[in-house]
From TrEMBL:
An example molecular function term from Gene Ontology annotations: acetolactate synthase activity
Highest classification ranks of the organism: Bacteria, Bacillati, Actinomycetota, Actinomycetes, Micromonosporales
UniProt name for this protein: Acetolactate synthase I/II/III large subunit
Ranges for domain Thiamine pyrophosphate enzyme TPP-binding: 382-528
Pfam families registered for this protein in UniProt: TPP_enzyme_C, TPP_enzyme_M, TPP_enzyme_N
Length: 539
């Protein structure tokens, strides 16, 4: 048995049935073995960065540890942004990267992969010898699950082709330990209970790290008379609760913004509290802020807090509920507020106006709200365009159905994350919102979308510009033409690469396109030419 075969066996033994990647000298025989001997599905991307993003999208929507593979040198180097996104999102992911022979420092593709992997993924596991290959695969998977985060499993090209020495190839696979929930200190529990007891206008704010604790946080909110809110990453977590304010942050809706301005206590659970969540201090300016997190380094790291509680979100919420007598706050949880929340219309008061050849993006999102299937995975890429679906569309974070890979602020994420999400959850369609500039950084993945054939509706909100840069340049007197580009027929490009596509410039065209696209059974692209002068103030 060759080392690459032993690695394939060890990967499959951990339940892996799908691998994303790009073939190259240092990984092509591993991929061929996974596919032909083990029946693993290989999703071939057109770019290594996109391949790792696809694996990240797969992990976020399935909860499984994802696997991707790239070749040596430039293969790993190109994937740096995607590894950094996965690291910041704490996505469990193993990237099997080839490497040049250690004895050939003049190899054309040589560079020191270990420091690069540590700077991006954060964890590096080298396969040092033929006899340790199986063990090293196990170390990589354990690290990805238990840290959690991405791991680069480094396999030199010459070592991959060596014979595994006789004898046991390694211990039987040990499944990763499920981390024990971190129980908060009783003194911190009592202190938080006192704050909730004495506050007049408390709010419980949940982030993505608290998704599994939603029921416990709801119970604590009902017991303490608090209102509920989420970060953008956990949008929809409390949908249906009569006192759910929705998303707290720069993309808060007007009613949410008005209510949060009066909060005197905000308790965050599993939320990456930062300047966006607090809208640069404007969202809850007079509130005492308490952060509950399992990572002590995260408490107060990006936004000042009054106090922190080190503990699992669910364990902490249940512990506080256990020592807190029920509190009624009819002035805060009023029937008037619940009635307002029940009928709140995100499109109310918008002065929507399309032109002869370009639709107002808010008009298009309003049509989306009425036409898109409720049961879907929603992916929103990074850019000015992303403010519209995030602000105006209702999302459900339950069952991993909302993906906003904004962690590193990297454009070009929408399409590859959508492909990975669709591969991971083929039981529901994916709707991905992307911008023209963002798509053009990875245009080749339209080919991947067409080849995969999954039900993905890619919505391109095209303003023929880098909209965020235009928005920031013009007010300071700098010519925004630097960030504007000629109009391109992106629908024709999509069709040329095998994906059915329609161009939308007005309301009637949008409705007609949805008539043809829905129900979504395969890939489709809506190229939506939007007005470039409609600005999302809170992007």
């Amino acid at each position: 048995m060759k080392v690459f075969e032993a690695i394939a066996d060890a990967v499959v033994a951990r339940g892996v049935d799908t691998v994303f990647g790009l073939l190259g000298d240092a990984n092509m025989f591993l991929v061929a073995d996974l596919v032909h001997r083990h029946g693993v599905r290989f999703v071939a991307a057109r770019n290594e960065n996109a391949a790792v993003m696809m694996a990240d999208g797969y992990a976020r929507t399935t909860g499984r540890c994802a696997v991707a593979t790239v070749t040596q040198g430039p293969g790993l180097a190109v994937a740096g942004a995607a590894l950094t996104i996965a690291r910041q999102a704490r996505t469990p992911l193993v990237l099997i990267a080839g490497d040049t022979p250690p004895g050939d420092p003049l190899h054309v593709q040589h560079f020191d992969q270990q420091p690069y992997a540590l700077a991006t993924a954060g964890t590096f596991v080298p396969v040092a010898a033929a006899g340790t290959a199986v063990r090293d695969v196990g170390l990589a998977f354990r690290a990805a699950r238990e840290l959690p985060g991405p791991v680069v499993l480094n396999v030199p090209i010459d070592l991959a082709d060596e014979a595994v020495p006789p004898g046991p190839v390694g211990p039987a696979p040990v499944p990763p330990r499920a981390p024990r929930p971190l129980v908060p200190d009783p003194a911190d529990v009592d202190a938080l209970a006192r704050r909730l007891r004495t506050a007049q206008r408390p709010v419980l704010l949940a982030g993505r790290g608290a998704e599994s604790a939603a029921a416990a946080i709801r119970e604590l909110a009902d017991r303490s008379g608090a209102l509920l809110a989420t970060t953008l990453m956990a949008a929809g977590l409390f949908a249906g609760h009569p006192y759910d304010l929705g998303v707290a942050g720069g993309l808060s809706r007007p009613l949410t913004r008005r209510v949060l301005a009066g909060a005197d206590l905000v308790v965050t659970f599993g939320a990456g509290l930062n300047r966006w969540t607090a809208d640069h201090g404007a969202l809850f300016p007079d509130a005492v802020v308490v952060s509950v997190d399992v990572d002590p380094a995260a408490i107060g790291a990006r936004w000042p807090v009054t106090a922190g509680v080190l503990g699992d979100a669910g364990e902490t919420a249940r512990a506080v509920s256990a020592v807190l007598a029920p509190v009624r706050r009819p002035h805060w949880r009023s029937s008037d507020l619940s009635a307002e929340l029940a009928v709140a219309d995100p499109f109310a008061g918008l002065a929507v106006a399309s032109t002869a050849d370009r639709i107002d993006p808010r008009a298009f999102i309003r049509i989306c709200a009425g036409r898109l299937p409720r049961e879907r995975t929603t992916v929103v890429g990074v850019g000015h365009f992303g403010g519209w679906p995030n602000l105006l569309l209702d999302s459900a974070a339950t069952d991993r159905s909302f993906v906003a890979p904004w962690e590193f602020g990297s454009i070009g994420v929408g399409l590859p994350f959508a492909v990975g999400a669709a591969v991971g959850r083929p039981d529901r369609p994916v709707v991905a919102f992307e911008g023209d500039g963002s798509l053009l950084t990875g245009l080749g993945e339209l080919d991947t979308l067409a080849r995969v054939g999954a039900p993905v509706l890619l919505v391109l909100l095209d303003d023929a510009a880098y909209g965020a840069e235009v928005r920031k340049l013009a007010p300071r007197g700098v010519d925004p033409e630097l960030a504007r580009f000629p109009e391109r027929d992106l629908a024709a490009v999509a069709r040329a690469l095998g994906a059915p596509a329609w161009t939308v410039t007005d309301d009637a065209g949008a409705q007609a396109a949805f008539d043809e696209v829905l129900p979504l059974t395969g890939p489709a692209v809506l190229h939506v030419r939007v007005r470039p002068d409609v600005v999302q103030d809170k992007f």
